[in-house]
Amino acid sequence: MKLKKAIITGGSGFIGRNLVKLVPEPIVVGRSSKKIQQIFPNVQCVEWHPPELIPKEIFDGVDVVFHLAGENIYKGRWNEEKKKRIFESRQVGTRTIVESMCQAKNRPKVLISSSAVGYYGDRGDEELTEDFGPGTGFLSEVCQMWEMEAMRATSCGVRVVPIRTGIVLGRDGGALAEMLRIFRLGLGGKLGRGNQFMSWIHIEDLVSIMAYCAQADTVSGPVNAVSPNPVTNKEFTKTLAKVLRRPAFMTVPAPLLRLVLGEFAEALLSSQRALPQKLLNSGYQFRYPLLQDALVNLLRKER
Ligand SMILES: NC(=O)c1ccc[n+]([C@@H]2O[C@H](COP(=O)([O-])OP(=O)(O)OC[C@H]3O[C@@H](n4cnc5c(N)ncnc54)[C@H](OP(=O)(O)O)[C@@H]3O)[C@@H](O)[C@H]2O)c1
């Protein structure tokens, strides 16, 4: 199947803005059409207010739904209220898109739904392919619920691919934007002992993986969207500092990180060494398999 007309929830976000550019006829679904039109003046947009279903006619001629919407996990301190928003925005949003699709007369063929390698929990240096089971902790629980809600679409004949995304590296958002602010001041450093594995992916690879999974009829079920070369936090820190030509001698002790960031610190200290087994088996070619090349590409203007 060739990618043509597709719905993108959360298309106004960091990943969504990059994905919209790849889709020939995108329909962006978000909470404010005014916000979407400011970002994409010439793109069709639909406002949604989960749990209200979205109008069935929107699905006419649509083969693919990319579901990205959810409360941002990187911004703001995690308190009980924030954690509730992280969980519920994904639960209610996924339920809403799945029910809306299933009730449509013309159902899309495939749902590409965001998830994260946080699914695996804190797993040390274990090499994690899609066959591995879930871990424990808040983010793992969020991902398990998120994937389960998305997989419900299989009951109405839709192929579902939860994309277990690693840390997305891009110039204009996500974790790298936050890290750069600190590294540019020369205050970069490893987090805790720095032994935790970081499964990362260049934004260009991520959106092309999403498009690839939409078009590859044989791909279904969870897919690890991570580069084939995860690195430890120590190695990531060293490589980023080298590419930026800045020092990174600091160590942020784990207790300090926990004090400042609350429970979000666990997300930075936990280790996932995920491997893109399904993508490699299916012949997907990574543009940026190596961290240094990915960072040089993204930060070339800074050097
Ligand atoms: N960036 C990463 O490194 C990374 C890694 C793993 C997984 N992911 C997942 O991939 C998805 C997209 O990530 P992203 O980095 O593009 O996120 P983002 O920049 O925060 O964008 C997410 C979009 O979701 C919508 N949204 C935000 N809060 C919401 C809420 N409380 N309820 C409903 N919708 C809400 C917003 O769109 P509107 O305002 O237009 O509604 C927003 O633009 C997320 O679900 C994220 O968890 C990202």
Written overview of the protein:
- The protein is α/β, with parallel strands linked by helices and 303 residues long.
- It has a domain at 5-167 and 199-227 and 275-287: 3-Layer(aba) Sandwich (Rossmann fold), CATH 3.40.50.720.
- Helices cover 38% and strands 18% of the residues.
- The strands form five sheets. It has a seven-stranded parallel β-sheet with strand order 3-2-1-4-5-7-12, sandwiched between helices. Strands 6-15 form a two-stranded parallel ribbon. It has a two-stranded parallel ribbon with strand order 8-11.
- Helix 3 (80-103) packs parallel to helix 4 (138-151) and helix 7 (233-244) packs parallel to helix 11 (291-299).
- The chain is globular and about 60 Å long.
- The chain binds NADP nicotinamide-adenine-dinucleotide phosphate.
Topology:
Blueprint: E1 5-9, H1 14-20, E2 25-30, H2 33-39, E3 44-47, E4 64-67, H3 80-103, E5 110-116, E6 127-128, H4 138-151, E7 159-165, E8 167-169, H5 174-184, E9 189-191, E10 197-198, E11 200-202, H6 203-215, E12 223-225, E13 231-232, H7 233-244, E14 250-252, H8 254-261, H9 264-269, E15 273-274, H10 277-281, H11 291-299
Parallel strand pairs: 1-2, 1-4, 2-3, 4-5, 5-7, 6-15, 7-12, 8-11, 9-14
Antiparallel strand pairs: 10-13
Helix pairs in contact: 3-4, 7-11
The chain binds NADP nicotinamide-adenine-dinucleotide phosphate.
Largest sheet: 7 strands, parallel
Strand content: 15-25%
Give the N-terminus to C-terminus distance in angstroms.
Answer: 41 Å
**Principal-axes shape call:** globular
Class of the domain at 5-167 and 199-227 and 275-287, according to the CATH hierarchy? Alpha Beta
pLDDT < 50 stretches: none
CATH topology of the domain at 5-167 and 199-227 and 275-287: Rossmann fold
| Cα Rg | 19 Å
How much helix, percentage-wise, in residues?
Answer: 25-40%
Q: How many DSSP E strands? A: 15
Overall pLDDT metric: 95
CATH superfamily label of the domain at 5-167 and 199-227 and 275-287: NAD(P)-binding Rossmann-like Domain
Order of helices and strands: EHEHEEHEEHEEHEEEHEEHEHHEHH
CATH architecture call of the domain at 5-167 and 199-227 and 275-287: 3-Layer(aba) Sandwich
Number of helical runs? 11
Helix and strand content put the structural class at: alpha/beta
Spatial strand sequence of the major β-sheet: 3-2-1-4-5-7-12
Bound molecules: NADP nicotinamide-adenine-dinucleotide phosphate
